[in-house]
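wait is this the right file?? whatever heres the structure
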């Protein structure tokens, strides 16, 4: 009958007493329930943050962002980054009961507040690179196009002299161009199909006899110039039994054949 009349929960409102001596043990509980005593006020509860009074007792509660320790009284900050579910690409920073994402230096946080994108320092328009600007975390550097070398100022570019850096194989002379090189031949000679060797003048096959003045009146230095001229002409020719044949005659007080055709 008592259980049918009592308010739930029955274990807090129905008590069976075996003897009159035990009635005193329940007197305080009845008083608390009937008078609504605030246990947090009447006792030294020891709660670090806040105390919550309940009929006949109390419990401690922590502020938002904190959790109650096993002693039931003190509180510790909740580390929202510790569980690894924050989703931050770079760094997770705990706050009271929450967290925020942070990016490494040289990156900015995207609108999703989790992922990071590298700052494009080249887009600021102050890099002064002659050719290309390359962004890196915390800065940028200049880069030259293929065939060019970056100069000491780290901004300007100069065409690379490939003739000095490769085995060009040119018979006469190598000339560097932008990102490349080509061979050239002396005046009067033509470049062969391989782009490296030079063809001597062999289009016309002639018998060529050169006559030079070898008298003292020419003077030695002038005679050297004449010989250089002869050598230059002969070097351009395809001298062979079936090509051009060359002979040389020298005269002064007498005529002398230096070599026949």
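ok assuming it is, sequence goes like this
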């Amino acid at each position: 009958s008592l259980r049918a009349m009592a308010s739930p929960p029955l274990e807090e409102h129905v008590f069976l007493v075996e003897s009159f001596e035990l009635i005193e043990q329940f007197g305080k509980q009845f008083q608390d329930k009937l008078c609504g005593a605030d246990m947090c006020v009447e006792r030294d509860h020891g709660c670090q943050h806040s105390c919550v009074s309940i009929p006949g007792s109390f419990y401690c509660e922590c502020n938002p962002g904190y959790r109650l320790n096993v002693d039931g009284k003190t509180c510790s900050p909740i580390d929202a980054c510790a569980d690894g579910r924050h989703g931050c690409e770079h760094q997770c920073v705990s706050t009271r009961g929450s967290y925020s994402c942070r990016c490494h230096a040289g990156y900015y946080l995207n609108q999703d507040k989790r992922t990071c994108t590298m700052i494009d320092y080249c887009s600021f328009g102050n890099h002064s690179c002659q050719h290309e600007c390359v962004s890196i975390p915390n800065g940028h550097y200049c880069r030259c196009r293929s065939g060019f070398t970056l100069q000491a100022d780290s901004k300007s570019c100069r065409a690379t002299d490939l003739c000095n850096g490769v085995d060009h194989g040119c018979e006469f002379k190598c000339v560097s161009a932008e990102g490349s090189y080509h061979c050239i031949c002396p005046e009067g000679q033509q470049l062969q199909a391989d782009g490296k060797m030079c063809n001597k003048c062999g289009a016309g096959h002639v018998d060529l006899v050169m006559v030079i003045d070898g008298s003292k009146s020419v003077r030695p230095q002038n005679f050297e110039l004449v010989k250089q001229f002869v050598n230059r002409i002969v070097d351009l020719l395809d001298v062979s039994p079936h090509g051009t044949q060359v002979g040389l005659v020298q005269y002064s007080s007498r005529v002398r054949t230096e070599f026949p055709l």
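The CA atoms of residues 75 and 237 lie 103 Å apart. so i think its the right one actually
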